[in-house]
Amino acid sequence: MSSPDSPWRHALSLTTPVMLGYVPLGIAFGVLCVQMGHAWWLAPLMSVAIYSGASQFLLLSLLAAGASLTEIGVAIFLLSARHLFYGLSMLGRFRGSGARKPYLIYALTDETYSLLSTRPETRDPAVAFRISLLNQGWWLLGSLLGAVAGSLLSFDSTGMEFALTALFIVLTVELMATIRQPAPFVIGLACGLGALLLLPKQHMLLAAIGAACLVLLLDYRRRAPGTVEAGP
């Protein structure tokens, strides 16, 4: 018989790759937050209230530039618009999750979405909740450690933000190994490169995601005309 804490041990094993990216990146965020003149507690507070790595880094830059609330809101909305697509694809998955549903929606980061969309056991709301909670815990731990270190030590943090890119690369490789279908990745790469070459940087991400989703939907319609897949 499995021990009572085995579900959490299983969730811990699933989130270990995320932990290896979130903790270093969270440390980088905490260090930068303090080195830009903010109080140490602002970093963990943002990791609880905002919980979006890219948006938190962007917010630090916008605050340093003296941006208005309107400018901050528009910029973060455009950066996080990809989560609209994540949420739509999870509507069926989160149905029946009860009191856990608001947190599951709130905690749907890129990395959490990657795990929930590829692991069959995450169809259980309890498993999805444990994964979401642990992932935010890793990010909060990293930002707290970075904030404390940044307030006590002085060092050059240049390059630490690359942890986010490294984490996306690892998750993409794992996703390719799980799905074993090259088409979505080829489409995503082509749309990303096209947007990067043709559009300004501030519009590149949203345009690339929208184009990739459109192409994938058209490809799905071509492969299965007249078929509508029921929600999970």
UniProtKB/TrEMBL annotation:
<feature type="transmembrane region" description="Helical">
    <location>
        <begin position="162"/>
        <end position="179"/>
    </location>
</feature>
<feature type="transmembrane region" description="Helical">
    <location>
        <begin position="137"/>
        <end position="155"/>
    </location>
</feature>
<keyword id="KW-1003">Cell membrane</keyword>
<dbReference type="Pfam" id="PF03591">
    <property type="entry name" value="AzlC"/>
</dbReference>
<feature type="transmembrane region" description="Helical">
    <location>
        <begin position="20"/>
        <end position="45"/>
    </location>
</feature>
<feature type="transmembrane region" description="Helical">
    <location>
        <begin position="185"/>
        <end position="218"/>
    </location>
</feature>
<comment type="similarity">
    <text>Belongs to the AzlC family.</text>
</comment>
<feature type="transmembrane region" description="Helical">
    <location>
        <begin position="57"/>
        <end position="81"/>
    </location>
</feature>
<keyword id="KW-1133">Transmembrane helix</keyword>
<keyword id="KW-0812">Transmembrane</keyword>
<keyword id="KW-0813">Transport</keyword>
<dbReference type="InterPro" id="IPR011606">
    <property type="entry name" value="Brnchd-chn_aa_trnsp_permease"/>
</dbReference>
<keyword id="KW-0472">Membrane</keyword>
<protein>
    <submittedName>
        <fullName>Branched-chain amino acid ABC transporter permease</fullName>
    </submittedName>
</protein>
